[in-house]
């Protein structure tokens, strides 16, 4: 089980990303627009840098929905390999069985 503070920090980052997504996208569009003057683009770059760092989507860490484990998380199921193996062994995931020979 992961530290609850790490899980809460990641949830807070997700909320910040959702809050600043539109503003960040608009500023990035201005920065990438080659038709605008360099002054306008530089001003947009400064505004983008002034936004909170945790508002960036790349700061979000994929974590297991059950345990909060940050590594070996399957995107499709949002479960780590350990939780996936436990649930598969118990027969909780339809169509998935633990192999044995």
Explain this structure.
This protein folds into two domains: 1-61, Orthogonal Bundle (Helix Hairpins), CATH 1.10.287; 62-101, 30s Ribosomal Protein S14, Chain N (Irregular), CATH 4.10.830.10. It contains three helices and two strands. It has helices at 4-32, 38-50, 81-90; strands at residues 73-74, 79-80. It has a two-stranded antiparallel sheet with strand order 1-2. Helix 1 (4-32) runs antiparallel to helix 2 (38-50). Part of the 30S ribosomal subunit. Contacts proteins S3 and S10.
In brief, what are we looking at here?
By secondary structure, the chain is mostly helical. The protein is 51% helix and 4% strand. It contains three helices and two strands.
Give the SSE map.
Layout: H1 4-32, H2 38-50, E1 73-74, E2 79-80, H3 81-90
Antiparallel strand pairs: 1-2
And the CATH topology of the largest domain?
Answer: Helix Hairpins
Distance between the termini: 30 Å
Helix content: 40-55%
How many separate helices?
Answer: 3
SSE succession: HHEEH
Beta strands, count: 2
Enumerate the strands of the largest sheet in spatial order, edge to edge or round the barrel.
Answer: 1-2
Q: What is the multimeric organization of the chains shown?
A: single chain
Unreliable stretches (pLDDT < 50, length at least 5) are: none
Classified by CATH, the class of the largest domain is Mainly Alpha
**Shape type:** elongated
Please tell me the CATH architecture of the largest domain by its name: Orthogonal Bundle
What integer value in Å does the Rg equal?
20 Å
Beta-strand residue percentage: under 5%
What number of structural domains do the residues give?
Answer: 2
């Amino acid at each position: 089980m992961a530290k609850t503070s790490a899980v809460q920090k990641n949830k807070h980052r997700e909320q910040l990303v959702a809050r600043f997504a539109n503003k960040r996208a608009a500023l990035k569009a201005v920065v990438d627009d080659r038709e605008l003057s360099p002054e306008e683009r530089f001003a947009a770059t400064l505004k983008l840098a002034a936004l909170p760092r945790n508002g960036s989507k790349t700061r979000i860490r994929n974590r297991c929905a059950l345990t909060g484990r940050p590594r070996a998380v399957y995107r499709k199921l949002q479960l780590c390999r350990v939780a996936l193996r436990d649930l598969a062994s118990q027969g909780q995931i339809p169509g998935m069985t633990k192999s044995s020979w």
